[in-house]
Specification:
elongated; 6-stranded mixed barrel
């Protein structure tokens, strides 16, 4: 709504009279100070003669209707920012850094922690594990699973899975495909429909059922050109034909199967393992269940507890002490990275607050130059609320621009963050800029506009008219300077907290890298090796002969010093457990009452290939074969734990692995290996380890183990062609032979620290950004203070003050702000970093070295930021300074 014509003319006349009055008052003040009348009136016209500006102020102040006022505010604010491009660019870029960092990290937190799993009713999905006295989340016995499935009352469906690798032959070069064995209702339980064809039918997962398979959308496109004719075709896996009955959608991902997903899905009954039906064999099987509608997880836990108690009573030897562990599926997937992401989210929030404080300081400094404008507004009748609204509108304009640029930075930063360490994050495929992230960015931008705009608006909305309209007036500059100093103190305190957190994480990672893993990772290559499909039905003797030929072939490869086949012997990767009891002791009533140790099935060359220390006795020999008496080598933890007062060498223990009791003699003791990570094997959780000869595996297990075995190669100085040479050597043995998942031991160690390294990298980046913003903030405050004190400094110099004294004066002013920020920040860090205790290793949350180093670093950076304006102040020309006003 607009004003009537007569009212607008009356208002313009009143405005012109008001302008003339202010012009006369400004000119008279200059004449009273001794200026010539002509120059005084010219200066007054320069200050207040911009009728366009005054009319613009009046129009936006007296605008009729809220929409018209908002439009005036936005246009006026945009014009002011356009007239100060340097200020606008710095403010927008500062905000973009803070908002972009928040948006990028929130997109990661949203994808990993907040977004529901991409299945119908995802809250009903539960991860299933079998608990035992020594394991809360162990593998499930398939026989127990069938009873769980049949006897529970709270799940609408249950399914289990077991990862594997199989050799695909036919239609080109042989390929090792990532396979998962599943029960028939796995996809139906998740609510996943096939892209074409069907999923498995009930009963197709039974032992002895016809061999069928599902393939992934990616494998379908890569090997079959996405042709629908694939349905009904037979594909050869490990030398056996499987009929393709369906294609799983290309977008199907579930982190239970690893970050890369799987290529082929086969019914669990097709896993040709004679131990599958044994109740005391878990064999790496884990499960997922869907709760019935309305059933809580606590109720399901109580139900499963009753089921497992009944099984323990019915099968005491196998199930005594066995239970079921139920975990919400999403929680089970993101368990390891959740604390790291929450710490990073808090850190990036600090970065945003520092950015807002910096922009608030910029606005406060700029408001000093606009003091006359605010005074003129007040003189023309603007209320305090009206001025605040206009200034907040300008702040929102900056926030919107900063949010837009921040969104672009976040889009780039999210991709860069994932590229740095994609394997560190589960559910990486769910990370991206979606509607929730856009909404969060808008909310952060608007909140930031309020945070950095409110203080300057309040400080500028109620000016002293008499002082502000005088050329020499200071207005509330002293109060503004104090407010700016408070903002900088807060910035530095938050920067201290981030730097301390980053320092603690860096020291933790350095401590972990210095941990002895129990082996020498240099020049060691590992890879998985499949059994040629043509040998799937070979006799155990033929398989052993083939394995010995593999050893000879690889040892003859140039540069190779030691070779060993292994099973369950990859540190920081898969493992196997062996139940046992000591000779001369009664056999425990149930398996859960037996002792256990990690079991590594290896060859004689394993000790040299891995660089493990032999403490006493001997390691395995070539003569420890299928014809010799069973022997084992144990680690020093095993020896101390089970034979504390006698020598372990020569002692014998009863082994229960592979479904058969055997009495094995201990022939050697080696050093302990960090199997579950460099940060997990402390004095309370060390697990005993044993090494069994590969060739002494039971005949019934040879085909299974050989088809899923690994190779460890130590070279004289690993060259880039070692893997190529090994592939070529094995290919000469058999064209069906495939080598897959090659890694060095250094890579394995690095991957075990991926989550820590990822969080440390981001936290260090946020801390560096906070340090930069805080140093810019203190530079701005000191520079502003120097500008306001130019006349005073000129008088000091004119009276004989040495430049060094002026330099110390300005540096001292900055040092006070820096010391206050450091002190408050250290106190805050002492309280806040205790939340990181679980993420630290080898360093305390109150580590004095980290705190002292960070305090010294930030103090030096702050003094460096103060030095430039201090040096400028020390070089002030007193003549120029005294003419400044």
């Amino acid at each position: 709504m607009t004003l009537p014509g007569w009212r607008r003319r009356q208002r313009d006349a009143e405005l012109e009279e008001e302008i003339r009055s202010h012009l006369e008052m400004a000119a008279r003040e200059r004449i009273d100070r001794g200026e010539p009348e002509g120059r005084a009136r010219e200066a007054a016209r320069r200050e207040f003669g911009n009728a366009g500006l005054v009319k613009e102020i009046t129009r936006e102040m007296w605008g009729w209707g809220s929409l018209e006022r908002l439009g005036h505010d936005l246009r006026y604010g945009a014009r002011l920012l356009a007239k100060a491009p340097g200020f606008a660019a710095i403010a927008v870029f500062t905000l973009a850094l803070g908002i972009g960092a928040n948006t990028a990290l929130f997109s990661i937190v949203n994808g990993v922690l907040l977004r529901p799993l991409p299945f119908p009713q995802p809250s009903q999905l539960v991860a299933l594990d079998e608990s035992k006295p020594n394991f809360e989340r162990g593998a499930i016995s398939y026989a127990n699973f069938l009873d769980w499935q049949r006897n529970n009352h709270t799940f609408s469906s249950m399914a289990v899975y077991r990862g594997f690798s199989m050799t695909f032959t036919g239609g080109g070069e042989a390929e090792q495909v990532r396979t998962v064995f599943i029960t028939s209702d796995f996809f139906r339980m998740l609510g996943v429909e096939p892209a074409i064809g069907r999923t498995f039918l009930p009963g197709e997962d039974r032992i002895g059922a016809a061999p069928v398979a599902l393939i992934s959308g990616g494998f379908w496109a890569r090997r079959f050109g996405s042709s629908p004719a694939v349905l009904g075709q037979a594909i050869a896996l490990n030398g056996r034909d499987y009929t393709v009955v369906g294609v799983v959608p290309a977008g199907f991902r579930i982190s239970l199967f690893g970050p890369s997903g799987r290529d082929v899905y086969v019914p669990l009954g097709q896993w040709q393992n004679n131990l599958l039906a044994h109740r005391d064999s878990a064999l790496g099987i884990h499960g997922v269940g869907r709760l019935k509608p309305g059933v809580t997880i606590d109720r399901a836990r109580a139900d499963m507890s009753a089921v497992t108690r009944a099984l323990a009573a019915e099968y005491p030897e196998a199930d005594k002490g066995t239970g079921a562990t139920l975990t919400p599926l999403k929680q089970a997937i993101v368990r390891n990275v959740r604390p790291y992401l929450l710490v990073l989210l808090a850190a990036v929030g600090f970065v945003l607050l520092i950015a807002c404080a910096n922009v608030a300081n910029l606005l406060l400094a700029r408001s000093t130059g606009r003091a006359r404008e605010f005074a003129l507004r007040a003189a023309l009748g603007a209320s305090q609320g009206r001025v605040i609204r206009q200034l907040l509108t300008e702040s929102f304009l900056l926030a919107i621009l900063g949010g837009g640029l921040g969104l672009l930075l976040a889009w780039w930063g999210t991709g860069a963050a994932l590229a740095v360490l994609p394997t560190a994050l589960p559910r990486a495929e769910a990370i991206g800029i979606d509607g929730r992230v856009l909404l969060a960015t808008a909310a952060v931008s608007l909140l930031g506009g309020i945070l950095f705009g409110l203080a300057p608006a309040l400080k500028s909305s109620n000016p002293d008219l008499h002082e502000a309209l005088k050329e020499s007036g200071r207005g509330s500059s002293g109060a503004r300077h104090r407010t700016q100093s408070i903002f900088v103190v807060a910035e530095m305190a938050m920067a201290i907290v981030l730097l301390v957190a980053a320092g603690l994480m860096i020291r933790s990672l350095a401590a972990l890298w210095s941990v002895n893993p129990g082996f020498r990772p240099d020049n060691v290559l590992t890879f998985d090796l499949s059994l040629p499909p043509s040998m799937a039905a070979a006799s155990p003797a033929a398989i052993r002969a083939w394995l010995r030929q593999v050893d000879r072939t690889l040892l003859s490869t140039p540069g190779v010093q030691a070779v060993s086949l292994s099973w369950g012997a990859f540190p920081m990767a898969g493992d196997d457990e062996e139940l046992f009891w000591l000779e001369g002791q009664p056999k425990p009533a149930s398996e859960n009452e037996m002792d256990w140790a990690l079991r590594y099935v290896v060859e004689p060359g394993y000790l040299q290939a891995m660089g493990i220390r032999l403490e006493r006795g001997r390691f395995l020999r070539e003569t420890d074969d299928e014809h010799a008496a069973p022997v084992i080598v144990v680690d020093d933890v095993f020896a101390r734990k089970f034979f504390p007062n006698r020598d372990a060498i020569g002692q014998r223990i009863h082994l229960t692995g592979e479904g058969q009791d055997r009495l094995a003699e201990i022939v050697g003791v080696v050093g302990h290996v960090k199997q579950w990570g460099l940060d997990t094997d402390d004095t309370n959780s060390l697990r005993a380890q044993m090494y069994a000869p590969f060739m002494q595996l039971r005949d019934a297990s040879m085909a299974l183990v050989a088809s899923d075995s690994s190779v460890v190669l130590r070279s004289a100085g690993q060259g880039p062609d070692l893997l190529t040479a090994a592939r070529a050597a094995l290919a000469r043995m058999s064209g069906e032979q495939t080598v897959y998942r090659p890694e060095t031991l250094h890579q394995i160690l690095s991957d075990s620290l991926a989550a820590r390294r990822y969080s440390m990298t981001l936290l260090a980046a946020f801390a560096a950004l906070a340090l930069l913003l805080a140093s810019i903030g203190i530079y701005g405050v000191v520079s502003y203070a120097v500008g306001r004190r130019t006349r005073e400094i000129g008088i000091r110099v004119a009276l004989g003050a040495h430049p060094a004294i002026v330099l110390r004066l300005v540096l001292g002013q900055g040092a006070k702000v820096a010391v206050a920020g450091v002190a408050i920040g250290l106190a805050a860090a002492l309280g806040l970093t205790h939340a990181m205790t679980r993420l630290l290793y080898g360093v305390s949350a109150t580590d004095p070295l980290t705190y002292a180093g960070v305090a010294i670093l930030l103090t030096l950076v702050a003094l460096a930021a103060c030095y430039l304006p201090a040096r400028r102040a020390a070089r002030v020309d007193p003549v120029v300074a005294l003419r400044w006003e």
